[in-house]
Specification:
Blueprint (H helix, E strand, L loop, with lengths): L2 H26 L6 H8 L2 H5 L1
């Protein structure tokens, strides 16, 4: 029964990743070259969970 929860979390993460990418483009005028660019500018949510 936990599987739908993980699916929803995965979908939410995918959606949020897209929004963060668009925010990066809006603020910088170009897309990030890597995930590291996003982490450098906005931080990592994993750090906040620990």
């Amino acid at each position: 029964m936990a599987r739908p929860r993980f699916k929803c979390e995965y979908q939410a993460n995918e959606f949020a990743s897209g929004l963060v990418g668009l925010l990066y483009i809006e603020e910088n005028g170009y897309g990030p070259e890597s995930y590291a660019d996003l982490m450098h500018q906005y931080g990592s949510p994993v750090d906040e969970l620990d």
